[in-house]
Design a protein that fits this description.
heterodimer, A: globular, B: 4 strands
Amino acid sequence: MAPSSSRRTGFSKKQQYSVFTGYLFASLGALLGLGLLALSLWQPSTFQPLRGPATDAVAPVGEATAAVRSGGNSVWDTISGYWRAGSQNADLRREVKLARIRLAEAEAQAVENQRLKALLSLSQSEAEPIAVTRLVGSSASSSRRFAYIGKGSSDGVEIGMPVHSERGVVGRVLEVARGSARVLLLTDSESVLPVRRASDQTVAFAEGRGDGLLRIRLINLGLNPLEEGDVFVTSGAGGYYRPGVAVAVLSELTPDGGIARLIADPSSTNYVMIEPIYEPLAVEAAGVRARDELTDEELRD
Amino acid sequence: MERLASSARRDPYGSRINRVKSPLREYTVPYASIMLGSLLPILFLADVMPVVPPLGYLFLLAWRIMRPGVLPLWIGVPLGAFDDLFSGQPFGSAVLLWSLTMIALEALEQRFPWRGFWQDWFTASLAAIVYILAAMVVSGADLSLPLLLACLPQIVLAILLYPLVSRMVAWLDRFRLSRTRRIG
């Protein structure tokens, strides 16, 4: 469609001025945007007071869509469950038998554990979750990976608290508003999580790559001891996450570690738990900032 | 005396007598549709990669390209600020990029006043690609090859979605200008 003739100025001073002012305002707006952008890259929390109420307002809608989403998931699961019901049933029976045996073994070990811990007079540190909620949305059109939850400071959620699903770590609370909070997912390229291999004490960092996979970077360089299929759990270093929560499974080896897949897919979980910070004292003592991530230099040190 | 056929008394916008368009619709529909486009992506749960194209930006492009003169040149500032509240980008990125888009499209229109749909689609695709890549650069993420590859599906989806968005904008424009109010 051609521009309407009203935008051609001709000799009219008024028209010329109004077109000129339009350009002026647009350019000033672009400059303003540049300034705001620089400010919010430098101090990411500056505009949180604006963003918080906005997400608060959208969170109830997100609750509804989250309910529909999980409902849709289960419908799909039901349909796909019918597809190979027979063979799956047989497989599951076999698995359940094995699992019962393992469960009995695990119970025995738990009892022994408790006895040993009692001997050492260690207290059981299973903290109650602060809140249980759904992921109500995410930054689906941005290249950052944030999710939003429908609980905020009025429910006791604080910045830095770990967010778990029933399968493992999902992320960490980054910003808190009154009734909603923003969660930095593990897959975000700024997310760094201290982990260890579940089978031994090989410690590493799990960094998000921005494409859904995690990069495992070993702290002790040298011969790479990792193998495909290794499970990584949180190590508890840094004090945010309690140790021993499942994080990722190694799928590919690289010279300095590997590439791992997430165990707790945020999109396939219905509910997430916001847990208290594991050791607030350690966080304070380490001087690790609650808001932003470790820089590359700090990681190298 | 000749009588008009009853069908001739009506046009696609309704009865032609005693009807005017609603000023409320006329002035709110474009902005409301763009803001709704900004809000929609937050409701999707994308944990792996950006999958939803920037719908607010696509609506802005479609309104600007298909109905020049409806949006003022400086509209990128308020609408971009609204988009920034929900997109997860650092505040100011859409203010900057949307303003630049409006200026660029204005300059483009001075050069090519008459265009067809294919040219419009090409322009919008180019704008969407540049926007998504620029937004990635200013998002504060660590720029790497996997990140770049992860936003390819989003780019493809944005390009394929533009014709649909432009049809919706055409429909919204008809809705915007349809005659609603009886006068007198």
